[in-house]
Amino acid sequence: MRDRDGFAAGDTSTAVRPTAARPAVMTDVAKLAGVSHQTVSRVLNGSANVRPETRERVLRAVEQLGYRPNAMARGLVSRRSNMLGVVSFDTILYGPACTLLGIERAARTAGYGVSIFALETVDRSSVLAAANSLADQGVDGIIVIAPQMAAAAALHNLPERLLAVAVEAGQDSGLPSVSVDQVEGARLAVQHLLDLGHRTVWQVAGPSDWLEARDRTEGWRSTLEAAGAPIPPLIGGDWSAHSGYEAGLLLAAQPDVTAVFAANDQMALGMLRAFTERGIRVPADISVVGFDDIPEAAYLSPPLTTIRQDFDEVGRRSMQMLLRLLEFDGATAEPASPSVLPTLVTRDSTAAPAQR
């Protein structure tokens, strides 16, 4: 029997089990996964020419055997450092932190080490300084997590010959880019509330200098316009639960509010507290949808309906894109990667509208 890539899917019981004295090698992974060692190599190097089910089988075998590619040997053959640089920024926000974790996981699977440069301030000069520092370390390429406009603008001035991929930098970064479709995520949230029968949906937005906040607002507004629904005044926030709490106090004083879309889960959490203090029941009086699906979302009171982002997929695609650039030494233009689609997670914070 052969797998869909044409390689024999033999009895995995014949796979040699690694020991402390003999760590796992690529042929062990190939035997356990029932594929050739060439297929294992393609998976570890992020090649797109592997069927998804085969990729999953290889990655399971890698994890089961604890296989780690010999980065030094690979570097001697390819004349590369097998190190990648990641420019991020010092934040405790859930989205950027999970994006960084997704990139680290994808790099580790591909056999690359990661050198992280975390910025305390995000502006053009600091992003360029970080890129130059990583280039001096001899990294093979860099991934820049650039969700803020200042960081995205700096990407046009990166050092020449430094191969780079941008994450969450919008379509105008000038670099190959991977991002979650934030507009679609907002559309899913707003359409869910409209489908429940709400006349319109209010929004508590993120900071105006964040590309993600801008796109979520665009998705909110365009969905209301397409439905012919009234567009309420936009309420600004700063991603924090405190700003969501302050917005919740304002919304609680508006008797016609029945549905709110918060641009992230932390602000939704703050709104829930404000509504409770004002005697407003969720979802009986006001329905609330968040964005991100933080681990605590399912345990809020009530459990929060929200939009989930696939950060591991963002990491995998950004690594795949960078490895493609390395394979062709940047000479082949990388086609724009399709955006990673978010999903709606329905819980108990939304319901059909009732008279307040």
UniProtKB/TrEMBL annotation:
DNA-binding as UniProt keyword: yes
Record domain HTH lacI-type: where: 24-78
SMART domains per the UniProt record, alphabetical: HTH_LACI
Record's keyword terms, sorted: DNA-binding, Transcription, Transcription regulation
Listed CDD domains: HTH_LacI (cd01392), PBP1_LacI (cd01574)
Pfam families: LacI (PF00356), Peripla_BP_3 (PF13377)
Entries under SUPFAM superfamilies matching the protein: lambda repressor-like DNA-binding domains, Periplasmic binding protein-like I
Domain HTH cro/C1-type: 26-54
MF (Gene Ontology): DNA binding
UniProt xrefs under PANTHER family: LACI-RELATED TRANSCRIPTIONAL REPRESSOR (PTHR30146), LACTOSE OPERON REPRESSOR (PTHR30146:SF153)
Protein name: LacI family DNA-binding transcriptional regulator
Species in which this protein is naturally found: Nocardia vinacea
